[in-house]
Amino acid sequence: MDGPVSSPVADRRLEVLAAARSAPHAFLRFEPGTLRCSLGTSLADLAVPVELAADARHIVRAAATEVALLLATHHKRLVPPDELDRLLLREEFGGLPQVEPTLSPGAGGPDLRAAAALCSAGHPALPGGLVTAWLGKGGKGRSLVGLWIELERRALEEARGAGGEETTLIVALGLAAELAGAEGAVREALPPTNAERYLRTAAMTALWVAGRTGLHRAFRDAGRAAGDLDLLRADAALSPAFLLGGRQAAAAGGGSTLYGCELLAGVPRADDLTARLAAGGDPAALQA
């Protein structure tokens, strides 16, 4: 029997949207009175100054470079021989983790295996063996997950004594912006071929999964449920579509299947359905 294809990513985005629609003012804006430090004289020009430390930025960029190199060397049939030779001369190449030629996730804990499975479901260029190597011991994706866990853990602790400040959301916004900025490192590491967009989308998908894994692990370790409002707001900040360049960019031949299907052909009446959902339409009816 035919039926709708379920996507855990799309399902979660619907949960986030439902939470935002139920309390739009509380969900979508900061309250200046709760912020320990802010710029601007009114709500319209409110800005929260955030700076990520240099060592944290290095972790993000190193993870982005490594996953890009892993993709290019693993899918070497998509890379011209002269460009492949250039990649082999990079300093980072000698430290790449060993990739097992498997589609399913390799050995590791439940979080690692779940992340590898989500990557594989999110992009066909991300087999389980490659993602397990990147997220496993010795891979720089593991450090990226650890960065999210540590910073969000600190944010959760600080939020208890911060007078209601949305510390976890501020951290999520800062880290999500840094992930988006790491696209430059991905572009620099990937060879300029016809497959560059395809591999770049795969790399950005992997970065999103790593961030999501660390974010959810930090909240879980703190005893916070999946429906926790702070986690839902942080999930909203860590948008996969944002990292992929928006819906149009994600659909433009990048191969992303994060939302359950290849988007290149387009979704019939997508703009109309999106508008109806934003206006308060029933998610179940629109999904059907």
Task: Walk me through what this model shows.
- This protein has 288 residues and is mostly helical.
- The chain has 15 helices and no strands.
- It has helices spanning 8-22, 24-28, 54-74, 81-88, 110-122, 128-135, 140-159, 167-181, 183-189, 196-221, 229-237, 240-243, 247-251, 270-278, 283-287.
- Helix 3 packs antiparallel against helix 7 (140-159), helix 3 (54-74) crosses helix 10 (196-221) and helix 7 (140-159) packs across helix 10.
- The longest helix has 26 residues, at 196-221.
Give the key terms:
288 residues, mainly alpha, 15 helices, 59% helix
Distance between the termini: 15 Å
Radius of gyration over C-alpha positions, nearest whole angstrom: 19 Å
How much is the average pLDDT? 84
Number of helices: 15
Portion of residues in beta strands equals under 5%
DSSP, total strands: 0
> Any low-confidence stretches, pLDDT <50, length ≥5?
none
The topology string of helices and strands comes to HHHHHHHHHHHHHHH
Shape: globular
Mind summarizing the main beta sheet? none
- Helix proportion range: 55-70%
What is the SS-derived class? mainly alpha
